[in-house]
């Protein structure tokens, strides 16, 4: 059973020795309602089980970081949220993942619509081999979000602005997106993801191919975007998880070991495996 | 506790704790010698305490430098972060203890010019032993990562306060009875006050140890406390 700190809190306070007042009330709790609720999620790749009974709440309007060593299942979990695992032959997802109370694996859910609601940004920026404008306009156009040229142009501009890229590309919208720098390309694909007005943005190591300045820009962007979206980020950088997220979940060997407010996970983790991992002791 | 994958990181963290323990030992010696100097009216011992204080200042600066370097270069997390911060804070408390010990030693030099007041000296000695014992206990708790021992020091803070309050009354009685003792008594009052503050630093260190080990802060308001002014 993973220790969901939110649940464990009342018990911990009650069991503390009387003469030591343990104050966890002021600890910053992730704000907002639950956007994604995962319960007993098991994922199999053929015979191999990649996730074991993962239950996790992802709050709205906040950044949740998934951390853990390679192969721990964090990316598998991330990809289960918008059913990217559907595309992998032999992959089976058991359990329940709710988006606003609705099971994403329900037959009535169209994965294409789901992926418009739950956007994704990958490790390597992957702009389409089209112009900057077309990269951002593509989604709204195929989803029928924009009617008419003016509306489409407005969506492209506002998406590029929200992704913090507008000033750098406004005068070259019709040049290829692949001609931008790595950091700019990553912001372009973030703009592309926001253009379809998603509710959730999943990010799988979005900064691992970027230099520190480009990384800082993306982190600043993530911080701004969290006011409007629910963001889930997979990262191998402990410092990045600590910097950008409000909630952190630690995965190990396919299990969710511990989840809680980021400030607590990085100063006072409950589980020795979490402690060993974040302090660089995993042997 | 497993060792760090990066050996040099492990070494740096251990060195920080070892430096702090060494500084603790030196502080204990300074406080002990300062008390002995007052009680035995030992001029040369008092001078030695004053002269040795600089070493504590240098040690504190060194621990602080190492801790800042560690934070900048290693980005310690969780228990490592708490250990690093604890070392810095403990060093700063120990440095203050050293200053207070030096101040006691300096007053010894003045006190030795006046007539000895034996009963007061005995009271100072008793209080000094108590404070020194607390400092020793809390430093042992630190080196042994012994939470229970740290908690024991923390919860007995009122013993020192009671000693201080009774010494305070005793000193007032002497000063009222014989104004010629006022100079000596005033110095002894500061000696007692300094000892009481060293006791407070021992309590602070106990709280820091509690945070280092458990990650939880202690609430000072819950500690038993005697109001010195109304006693």
Oligomer: heterodimer
Tell me how many strands of chain B there are: 0
SS strand fraction of chain B: under 5%
How many helical stretches of chain A? 11
Helix content of chain A: 25-40%
Distance between the termini of chain A: 23 Å
Give the largest chain-chain interface (CB within 8 Å): A-B, 22 and 26 residues
Polypeptide structure, described:
The complex is a heterodimer of chains A (283) and B (231). Chain A has 283 residues and is α/β, with parallel strands linked by helices. Helices cover 36% and strands 24% of the residues of chain A. Chain A contains 11 helices and 11 strands. Chain A has helices at residues 5-15, 74-81, 111-117, 132-142, 149-162, 166-169, 182-195, 212-225, 238-244, 262-267, 272-278; strands at residues 3-4, 34-45, 48-59, 63-67, 91-99, 102-103, 118-121, 200-204, 230-234, 247-252, 255-261. In chain A, the strands form 2 sheets. Chain A has a 7-stranded mixed sheet, sandwiched between helices. Chain A is globular. Chain B is mostly helical and 231 residues long. Chain B has helices at residues 7-40, 43-74, 78-111, 118-143, 147-155, 157-177, 182-214. The mean pLDDT of chain B is 93. Classes of the chains: A alpha/beta (283), B mainly alpha (231). The interface between A and B is medium-sized, with 22 and 26 residues.
């Amino acid at each position: 059973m993973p220790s969901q700190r939110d649940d464990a809190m009342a018990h911990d306070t009650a069991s503390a020795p009387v003469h030591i007042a343990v104050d966890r009330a002021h600890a910053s709790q992730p704000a907002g309602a639950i956007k994604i609720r995962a319960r007993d999620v098991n994922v199999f790749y053929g015979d191999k089980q990649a996730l074991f009974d993962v239950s996790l709440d992802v709050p709205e309007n906040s950044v949740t970081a998934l951390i853990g060593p390679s192969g721990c299942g964090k990316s598998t979990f991330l990809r289960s949220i918008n059913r990217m695992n559907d595309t992998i032959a032999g992959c089976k997802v058991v359990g329940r993942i709710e988006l606003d109370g609705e099971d994403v694996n329900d037959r009535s859910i169209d994965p294409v619509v789901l992926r418009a609601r739950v956007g994704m940004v990958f490790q390597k920026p992957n702009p389409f081999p089209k112009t900057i404008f077309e990269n951002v306009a593509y989604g709204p156009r195929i989803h029928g979000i924009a009617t008419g040229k003016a509306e489409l142009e407005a969506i492209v501009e506002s998406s590029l602005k929200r992704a913090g890229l507008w000033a750098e590309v406004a005068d070259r919208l019709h040049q290829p997106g692949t001609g931008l720098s790595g950091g700019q390309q990553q912001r372009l694909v973030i703009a592309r993801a926001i253009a379809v007005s998603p509710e959730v943005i999943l990010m799988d190591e979005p900064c691992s191919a970027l230099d520190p300045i480009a990384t800082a820009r993306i982190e600043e962007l993530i911080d701004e975007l969290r006011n409007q979206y629910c963001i889930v980020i997979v990262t191998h950088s402990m410092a990045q998880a600590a910097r950008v997220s409000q909630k952190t979940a630690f995965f190990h060997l396919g299990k969710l070991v511990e989840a809680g407010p980021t400030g607590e996970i990085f100063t006072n983790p409950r589980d020795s495996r979490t402690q060993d991992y974040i302090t660089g002791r995993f042997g | 506790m497993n060792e760090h994958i990066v050996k040099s990181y492990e070494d740096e963290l251990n060195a920080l704790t070892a430096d702090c323990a060494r500084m603790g030992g030196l502080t204990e010696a300074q406080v002990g010698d300062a008390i002995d100097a007052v009680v035995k009216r030992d001029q040369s011992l008092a001078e030695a305490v004053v002269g040795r204080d600089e070493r504590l200042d240098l040690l504190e600066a060194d621990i602080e430098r190492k801790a800042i370097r560690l934070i900048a270069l290693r980005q310690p997390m969780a228990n490592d972060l708490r250990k690093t911060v604890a070392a810095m804070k403990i060093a700063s408390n120990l440095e203050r203890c050293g200053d207070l010990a030096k101040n006691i030693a300096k007053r010894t030099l003045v006190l030795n010019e006046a007539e000895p007041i034996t009963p007061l000296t005995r009271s100072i000695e008793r209080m000094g032993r108590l404070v020194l014992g607390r400092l020793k206990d809390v430093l042992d708790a630190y080196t042994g990562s012994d939470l229970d021992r740290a908690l024991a020091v923390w919860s007995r803070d009122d013993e020192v306060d009671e000693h201080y309050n009774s010494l305070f009354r005793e000193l007032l009685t002497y000063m009222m009875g014989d104004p010629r003792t006022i100079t000596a008594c005033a110095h002894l009052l500061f000696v007692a006050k300094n000892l009481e503050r060293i006791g407070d630093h021992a309590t602070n260190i106990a709280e820091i140890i509690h945070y280092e080990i458990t990650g939880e802060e202690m609430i000072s308001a819950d500690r038993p406390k005697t109001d010195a002014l109304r006693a």
